[in-house]
Amino acid sequence: MIEIKNVSKLYNGSKGLALKETSLALEPGEFIFLVGPSGAGKSTLIKLMFREQLPTSGEIFFENRNMADYSKRELLAHRRKIGMVFQDYKLLKQKTVYENVAFALEVLGKSPKEIQKKVPEALEKVGLSQKKDKFPKELSGGEQQRVGIARAIIKQPVLILADEPTGNLDRDNALQLMKLFEKINKEGTTVVIATHAWDLVDRMQKRVVALSSGELMRDEQGGYSNNE
Ligand SMILES: Nc1ncnc2c1ncn2[C@@H]1O[C@H](COP(=O)(O)OP(=O)(O)OP(=O)(O)O)[C@@H](O)[C@H]1O
What we know:
Blueprint: E1 2-9, E2 19-26, E3 31-35, H1 42-50, E4 57-62, E5 65-66, H2 72-80, E6 82-86, H3 97-106, H4 112-125, H5 141-153, E7 159-163, H6 171-186, E8 190-194, H7 198-204, E9 206-212, E10 215-222
Parallel strand pairs: 3-8, 3-9, 6-7, 7-8
Antiparallel strand pairs: 1-2, 1-4, 4-5, 9-10
Helix pairs in contact: 3-4, 3-5, 4-5, 5-6
This protein binds adenosine-5'-triphosphate.
Adenosine-5'-triphosphate is lined by residues 11, 14, 18, 36, 38-44.
């Protein structure tokens, strides 16, 4: 699905490389944790996959197309295929749960009929049907992130990129969210999660890609660290 080939990233005005000659292939249907200390390059890798950033050197292929060669239209199409989930949820405060999720389809120009059908399905999937008329400030952190996930999955993305999605949640809520990501993955969506939550990574037993100072240190199935 995504092939990252020998990619380095140097941000403007920065001295050191955020990513150093990193290569990585993601297959459709995988569930991958990106782990590593602060500044390791996890968010950079996610931004490159969304094409929010371009590599300084190396290439990234999405479904066999070099992402650096995208036209404007292809870039939009790329982003439509990807659902983003953020640590701070990024919900619209003045909109209800229903309206937040509907908005993701409105901006894609979908018909009211399709929106009316799909929003309840997405809310059902994340267990928030009862809270559809609440505003974000009336929800717990875990519930707000479920709205964030409903908003991501309603586009029926092939890939979900989540940057520290459980960073603001307690352990129980965080585990429930990971289980929700697992359910979505089992239904066919590829999932990539950057996280510091080593205990959850240990518990989930998925593919773990570990970065340190921009370098890929480890890539294997299992827990957070390799000395267990
Ligand atoms: N926009 C930017 N401009 C300059 N340097 C940046 C920028 N974004 C990130 N960096 C630098 O790139 C390196 C990698 O950062 P990145 O955010 O990818 O790490 P991370 O593993 O996601 O860290 P964290 O766990 O703290 O989110 C860091 O040294 C960081 O300071």
